[in-house]
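Continuing the batch. This is chain 6 of the set; chains 1 through 5 are on the previous pages. Same settings as before, nothing changed between runs. Recording input and output for traceability.
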Amino acid sequence: MAMRVLQVDIVVPVRNEERDLAPSVRRLVSYLQAGFPFTARVTIADNGSTDGTWAIADGLARELGEVRAVRLEQAGRGRALRTIWSASDAEVLMYMDVDLSTDLNALLPLVAPLLSGHSDLAIGTRLAPGSRVIRGPKRELISRCYNMLLHTCMGARFSDAQCGFKAIRREQARALLPLTQDTGWFFDTELLVLAERAGLRIHEVPVDWIDDLDSRVDVVATALADLRGMARLGSGLARGSIKVPRLRGSSLAGARRSAELPLQVVSFAVVGVASTIAYLLLYLLLRVVMSAQAANAASLLVTAVANTAANRRLTFGISGRQHAARHQVKGLIAVGIGLALTSGALAVLPSVNRGLEVLVLVAANLVATVIRFVLYRTWVFGKSRAYRGEPIERDHLRGEAFDPHPPAAQGVHGVQEVQGVHAEPDPAAAARA
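Output for chain 6:
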């Protein structure tokens, strides 16, 4: 007789939650039993509890067939989610906070687009129109500032990175999880940024959310850890040390390049400031022995070569010698526009006042810099970046790199599991079989 396919694995990460665990899990299971249309399992992920949390989780798993309990000796929500999601056999992997701050009526809208194949990842959002949120001004301010930083510095387009209510398709999770590094609260943000870079569709669900007044999360410490995580992730993406695979169609290149824009602008600006200072110093030095036009051309040529090399490596993440000469030639052509603008500006100057020369050159260079950035992004380095990533192997997308059995089943050190009966016979499925 065919067994029902597990469609949704709902992970509830907990650490020292002996008070809230049992009532929250019972409420969640009751909701699922009352008419949730998909097969689901609740996985309690105890990560490093030192109170009675594990004993309660163990008891719930033995009592309720829909519940499984897994214990990890090391603390960290990100570590717990990565461990359990990597081994889960469900079609959709999700998690929610144990306090059930998010209204359970948002559960179906969250997972349905993933099971239908319309979207790859879904998040609850407290910052989108239609959401209803009750929380203190301190958390509200920190949350909005954090998400604004993500949009400004990392080009993120999702509205709420921190809501404890997310889901992802299993195939996409197994492709992205090996790229994640954070073991704590930043794990959510890291996975979302990587998903956007991979071109995945992210579905947002406005939620009703009530702040847990008894929450023991250190908001300030968590915010600082998130900022460190942003710096690490942004640096890795900018340098090219974090290589995100192509997961969703040929439109990925445009989506990823759009997401990279803020980081590229910052890097280009830093390189540009250094190049401009070098250019002006060299111009003033050469101006002593050359005409204005000759000093301008020589200074621009010397700094252009260094500018192209620096932007190639730092701004657009291209390393190695392949196509380096071609990039320099194209870069010089792009710089030619700057030469034309600055030379034209010098030609129309009414006097030879050295201070006026410098001001005009700075203004002309600003215009030329904007044009050069567009050319760098779309022409000089554009094609190289579009094709520099290697395609994903089919076996990797299928998850062959992961063990299909939960770690506890093999006696992995530091992981214990208690599991009830989760799969029930489905007469309709049996008839189809």
